[in-house]
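Recap slide: Phenylalanine--tRNA ligase alpha subunit, sequence and predicted structure.
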Amino acid sequence: MLFENIKRLTQEVEAFEIENKEQLEAFKNTFVSRKGSIAALFDEIKTVAPELRKQVGQELNQLKQLAQQKLDARQEELEQSSTPDVLAGLDFTLPPVPNALGARHPLARTREQIIRIFERIGFNVSEGPEMEDDWHNFSALNFPDNHPARDMQDTFFLSKNPDMLLRTHTSTVQVRVMEHQKPPIRTLSPGRVFRNEAISARAHCMFHQFEGLYIDRNVSFKDLKDTLYYFVQELFGQDTKIRFRPSFFPFTEPSAEIDITCHICKGKGCNICKGSGWVEIGGAGMVDPNVLENCGIDSQEFSGFAFGMGIERITMLKYQIKDLRLFTENDVRFLRQFTGM
Ligand code: DAH
């Protein structure tokens, strides 16, 4: 009887399927544990005739070993394959989440547009340093020493001797170009400028300008007007009108401030142009002969015009942006509005 039981149990152990932890536990309880069926058979050895006990004992030990080995082997296999299934629960038929498109910063976009417009009429692009000396920011541009116009620029001074400062306008690049190149000169100089101003919706201590300079023989105020007319119509639309108001800059004579018709209300009057129909976009004039001479250009032979405008100002007018601070806050809700433009 006992031999038959051992044989039957051996078949059961071999046939038992262990595919998961629960089945592993059941196998252990059924066969291997101290209360399992193999242990029960060991208890029966004492009922067997003494001359058979040795053989029964051997066969039972073989069965016990078989069961233990199977338990150990399956346990190891299950542990190895028990890393969580990362793909479980994913639905591969769902459409993918689209990649968000990037946007160019509106100031970079405006600067590029301005450069492209002037490139078409033969202007190249020039740049100068943001840390400047007094000569390039003031003296060469005909600001007399101790002249109040120096105060008006709210300069960040860096050091006294040598006199270094953060440039307050891109007119510095005019000087650098004229010092190193011979006329004819047609150049556009975009760049960052700095002024010691409290930051608000309308003012910032750091902003961008571009400077235009044209030096050749017989350059006239008419050339200046035609050039700026062409520029504002390319940038703001063909129906844009331009107006020159007499003004003063130390480096130009005569000087003018440039207004254009408000392209929001087309000159009718709105809150952007404060009801006047016109908005100011920059300054311009004929390069003062003193400036030409300061830069080594013969003012008897050559004349020229210059202009300077704010890139923030133009961008705000173009896209009706009401607060300067938006340009530097890196708020993606603002920047995303320029996606794909
Ligand atoms: N540099 C002046 C400013 O920052 C702008 C300007 C006015 C530039 C007249 C010019 C010019 O070249 O001719 O306010």
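The chain is about 40% helix and 20% strand.
The two ends are 91 Å apart (CA to CA).
(End of recap.)
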